[in-house]
From TrEMBL:
InterPro entries: LCIB/C_CA (IPR040703). This is Limiting CO2-inducible protein B/C beta carbonyic anhydrase domain-containing protein. Residues 19-232 form the Limiting CO2-inducible protein B/C beta carbonyic anhydrase domain. It comes from Chryseobacterium lathyri.
Amino acid sequence: MNTQHLETVHQWYPAAKTTEDTVNRLLDVIEENLGLKPNQLMHADSMCCDDVNAIQYPPRAYEMLGPFHMGGLNGFPFAGITGMNAFAHHVPEDGAVIIFYAPHIGITKDGSLGEISRIGQTGHSPCCGAAKGALGKLVAGQIVEGNITSLDFQMNTIEQIFLHHKDRILDAENQIFEATEVMYEAIDDRIEVLVKQTNYPCKYVILVGAVFINGDRDMGSFCQYKKFDCIDLESNERKSLMKEYYG
């Protein structure tokens, strides 16, 4: 069913694949280039805790070990260095760590961004709700520089990220699209920092950065990769596998 809606998704994310195809291709590329089977991969993800991501989580991903969930609201890796170190020590020694990270965004059948029709509901609701909420406060000028509280730490963190890119987001043709791009870059930067501060007792670290795209309840989900890097821990060499993935 969801392949019928790829044309709609491609209006915004021209390289997106269905989530099922994404995971199939990911595992094929890893096996072809590294010789590793799914049961040799310790999988961590940094995705939003929104229930729609659990509903639309690709079943084949469970062939890997894990997942260890690092993400909170909108996919930022709130588990931090403690979470990264924790799951790093669960990896098979002859295998690899694979870290998938992505903010998510909704898209309706008619191509509207930032919302979806959820199971059991007749109308649309925000997706990602946290991103939409932070964007609403940014537009209204209600975000205070440096305001991060223990009562709403994750949401306040997203608000600060958006505030630091205020002009870029507000001047964009589509603000929620641009806010999601900003969020991806913030997640990517943080993941890179965490990886550098973690020791992995395995052969490879594989970093997969993307935007996860939730469709209406009968559309399924989609994914557009932005990064697919493999770090050889023995030589410390990094290679992009994006050409192999799209090839």
